[in-house]
Design brief:
Blueprint lengths: L1 E5 L3 H12 L3 E6 L5 H9 L4 E3 L4 H4 L4 E4 L8 H8 L4 E2 L1 H5 L6 E6 L4 H14 L4 E5 L5 H7 L4 E5 L2 H5 L8 E4 L14 H9 L10 E5 L3 H9 L5 E6 L7 E5 L2 E6 L2 E6 L8 H16 L4 H10 L8 E6 L2 E5 L6 H9 L5 E5 L12 H7 E7 L4 H7 L5 E5 L2 H11 L5 E4 L12 H13 L2
Parallel strand pairs: 1-2, 1-4, 2-3, 4-5, 6-8, 6-9, 7-8, 9-10, 10-11, 11-12, 16-20, 17-18, 17-20, 18-19
Antiparallel strand pairs: 12-13, 13-14, 15-16
C-alpha cells in the first residue's frame, strides 16, 4: 500500500511515521519548505520526501493520500487526486483505526482550544492516561505510533473534519457556530456548518454529542438532520432534564443519573463564553466517571490557554491582554464583551470574509482607539473610522504596541484581538502573540 502525505508539518510527519510503522510505502511531498527538524525526523526514519514541489509521478500512484489541513481542496494536485478517485483523507481519519483508545473530539468556531485543554486537564487530574492532539500539541498519528494512551482529547478544525470518512469520536462536542474560514468554503456558510457536523455523522447510539443548546445554527441544523448519538445539551438559559445548565449561579449537571453542582464564582476562567466551555468539559468529565471533587478542583485551578485573553503585563496602570488566538469576529466579540475598562484595540491581519458590523455596538461602548496591524486595513477603516476618535495604521507589532501605549491612559486596557488570520505579517497566531508579549515587555 502506497501512502502519500501532502504537507511536511506536524500532522504530515506524524502520519508518515505511523504509516511507515504499519508497513506502508510512504512518501512525503510539500509544496513549501519543510522545516529542518522535520527533515531530520523523516531521514532518521528512512522516509523519502521532497519540498518546494509536487512531483506528480510520485504522488498520483498513491493508494491513499493524507492531506494536511492547511492545504485547500482547490490545489491542483488535490484536484488531480480526486479526479483519479484516490482517497484524500485527514490525519485523524488515517490514525484512528490504529488505536483502541477512546477519543473525545471537540469542534466549533470558538472556544475549542480552551475546552480541549480544560477537558485534558480534568481527565489528567482524574488519573486517566490521556493524550492531547488534533489541532494542538503533538500530532495524533505520531502519538498513536509512539504512545499508548487510553484516551485522546482531540481539537478538530473544520479542515480536519473535511477529510473524515469513517472516524467517529466516542464523545463529540460542538462548542458553537459562527462564520469562519468562509474563504475555504466558497463563501457559503452552510458548507462550513456541514463540515463541523461531520464530527457526529458516524456516531452511533452508544456515543455522545455535547452541544450548545442556545446556538441558533446548531438548533436549525438539528431540526433538519437526524443524529444517532445521545445528545447532551448545555445552556445558560434553560434548565434541561439531561445535560448541563445554570441555576442560581451554580453549574448544574445531570448525566446518567449523576448530579453535579459547582458555584460559578469558583471557576478559574472568567466570562460567559468560558462558562459554556466549563459546562461542556464538565459533561465530558461526568461521562468519563471523574470524581466530583476532582472536577471541582480542576475547574478552579485551570490555567487557561496561551494567546487567549492572556493577561500579559500591567504598565503604568494599563493592562495589556494578548488574545492573538482570536482569528475571527466571534472570538473578538467575546473578548470585547469581557472588557471592563476603556480599551485600545489592536486588530487586523488576513481578512477571511469578516463582517465587522456585529462588533459595532461593542466598539461604540468599549473602544477608545483602534490600531490596525495588517497589510490591508481598508475594510477596518471603512467600518470603524467614524466610530472611534483615533484610528492608526501600523505594519509591525512593536510599532503597534508603542502607539497603543501612547493612546492608553491610566486604568485603560490594551487588547490585541486581531479578528483575522496572521499570515500576512506573522508565521501563525502563536508567533503574533509572542511578538506582542515581547513588545509589551520592551516598553
Amino acid at each position: 500500500m502506497r501512502l502519500v502525505v501532502l504537507g511536511g508539518g506536524e500532522s504530515g510527519v506524524g502520519t508518515a511515521i505511523l504509516g511507515k510503522k504499519k508497513g506502508y510505502d510512504v512518501f512525503v511531498s510539500d509544496f513549501g519548505k519543510i522545516k529542518e527538524n522535520y527533515k531530520e525526523v523523516l531521514s532518521i526514519n528512512d522516509i523519502p520526501w521532497e519540498d518546494e514541489k509536487h512531483t506528480e509521478s510520485l504522488i498520483l500512484n498513491a493508494d491513499v493520500v493524507m492531506k494536511s489541513p492547511g492545504i485547500p481542496e482547490k490545489t491542483p494536485i488535490v484536484k488531480r487526486l480526486l479526479e483519479l478517485n484516490i482517497p484524500v483523507i485527514s490525519e485523524i481519519e488515517f490514525a484512528a483505526p490504529f488505536t483502541t483508545a477512546k477519543t473525545i473530539g471537540i469542534t466549533g468556531s470558538n472556544g475549542k482550544t480552551t475546552t480541549t485543554l480544560l477537558i485534558y486537564h480534568l481527565l489528567q487530574q482524574g488519573g486517566l492516561n490521556v493524550g492531547l492532539a488534533g489541532n494542538i500539541g503533538k500530532s495524533f498519528a505520531w502519538q498513536v505510533a509512539e504512545n499508548n494512551h487510553d484516551v485522546y482529547v482531540l481539537e478538530l478544525s473544520s479542515f480536519q473534519l473535511d477529510g473524515v470518512l469513517n472516524y467517529k469520536p466516542d464523545i463529540a462536542i460542538i462548542t458553537n457556530l459562527s462564520p469562519d474560514h468562509l474563504d475555504r468554503y466558497n463563501y457559503d456558510y452552510n458548507l462550513y456548518i456541514a463540515s463541523k457536523f461531520r464530527i457526529t455523522k458516524n456516531q452511533s447510539e452508544d456515543n455522545y454529542l455535547i452541544l450548545d443548546n442556545e446556538d441558533v445554527e446548531i438548533k436549525k441544523w438539528l431540526q433538519n438532520n437526524k443524529i444517532k448519538a445521545q445528545i447532551i445539551p448545555f445552556s445558560l438559559l434553560d434548565e434541561t432534564e439531561k445535560g448541563v445548565f445554570l441555576k442560581e449561579n451554580n453549574i448544574n449537571s445531570k448525566i446518567n443519573n449523576e448530579e453535579f453542582t459547582m458555584p460559578i464564582n469558583e471557576l478559574a476562567l472568567e466570562g460567559k463564553h468560558n462558562l459554556k466551555n466549563a459546562m461542556a468539559a464538565t459533561a465530558v468529565a461526568q461521562l468519563m466517571k471523574i470524581r466530583k471533587q476532582t472536577i471541582r478542583e480542576s475547574l478552579s485551578n485551570f490555567q487557561g490557554a496561551e494567546h487567549r485573553l492572556e493577561k500579559t503585563l500591567k504598565i503604568q496602570n494599563v493592562q495589556y491582554i494578548n488574545d492573538s488566538k482570536a482569528t475571527n469576529v466571534n472570538a473578538t466579540f467575546f473578548a470585547l464583551d469581557s472588557m471592563q475598562t476603556p480599551t485600545v484595540w489592536i486588530v487586523g491581519g488576513v481578512d477571511k470574509g469578516n463582517d465587522y458590523d456585529e462588533l459595532m455596538s461593542l466598539v461604540r461602548q468599549k473602544v477608545k482607539g483602534i490600531v490596525c496591524l495588517g497589510v490591508d486595513n481598508q475594510k477596518l477603516f471603512q467600518t470603524f473610522s467614524g466610530v472611534v476618535d483615533t484610528m492608526i495604521e501600523t505594519t509591525s507589532m512593536s510599532e503597534a504596541v508603542k502607539i497603543a501605549q501612547k493612546m492608553a491612559e491610566k486604568g485603560d486596557t490594551v487588547l490585541l484581538s486581531p479578528c483575522c488570520a496572521s499570515f500576512d505579517l506573522f508565521e501563525n497566531y502563536e508567533d503574533r502573540g509572542k511578538q506582542f508579549k515581547q513588545a509589551v515587555h520592551n516598553l
